Fold this sequence. Notes:
With 173 residues, chain A is an alpha/beta fold. Helix content of chain A is 37%, strand content 16%. A three-stranded mixed sheet of chain A has the order 2-3-4. A three-stranded mixed sheet of chain A has the order 5-6-7. In chain A, strand 5 (96-97), helix 5 and strand 6 (117-120) form a beta-alpha-beta unit. With 68 residues, chain B is α/β, with parallel strands linked by helices. The longest helix of chain B has 9 residues, at 7-15. Strand 1 (2-4) of chain A pairs parallel with strand 1 of chain B.
Amino acid sequence: MFRYLGGRRDWFAAGLPMQGTRARRLLAGAAARRDVPTCGLSDASSDVRARLQAGRSAVCIVVDDAGVVLGRVGRAAWRSRGPATPVEEVMDVPTTYRPDNLVESVIAAGGRASGGVVITTSDGVLIGVLDLREARQRLAGMRRTRGRAARARPRRRPRPAGSRARATTRTRR
Amino acid sequence: MATVIDRAMVQRLVAEGAQLVDVLPSKEHAEAHLPGAISVPLWALERRRAARELDRARPVIVYCHDVQ
Lengths: 173, 68
């Protein structure tokens, strides 16, 4: 007999598969974009800026050798500083969310976070970046689909009082 | 006495055929559980019926929400 001490919280926070009703909802890990540019603390600022300009992401995530998030730099990071300022001095340290967080909860907590919300495992390893605008659109799309499905479902009419007695009478004829 | 294991060990044992047992209440199990886990709420763990659902020849891993 073995006991998994971390339990399901540890499992889901690592971005591992889930079964159950919650798995059918939009989760941060599933909605996050994985093709986010990354850089290291010692990367040349010019290289990081080039990576940002080449990609469609507004942010570059600063990670260590193990993929653990150390910070985030946006396109405007060097605007008020010299172009040679090291990554470490221009990066900010973002609040991170876990992959099993519901997207609507992340949206509620993340507000208008520019450049998206960083999703990591509980060990801090980068999973991706959740673009809040894209996430809102996906949620709205899912709600529309659910609404259409609910309208298409035939509604049960409540049986009027005494209907059972009438049915019995018909059977007897 | 159960041996405490971590996530990596769970993945290894499950790949080798271990059975996952979720001891959370059924409602919580229905909401979210590890793939393939069977629901045996803690209060039912001692019952014979729960034991019959498990294969005695394969290792059993129990888990709940977290370390609590």
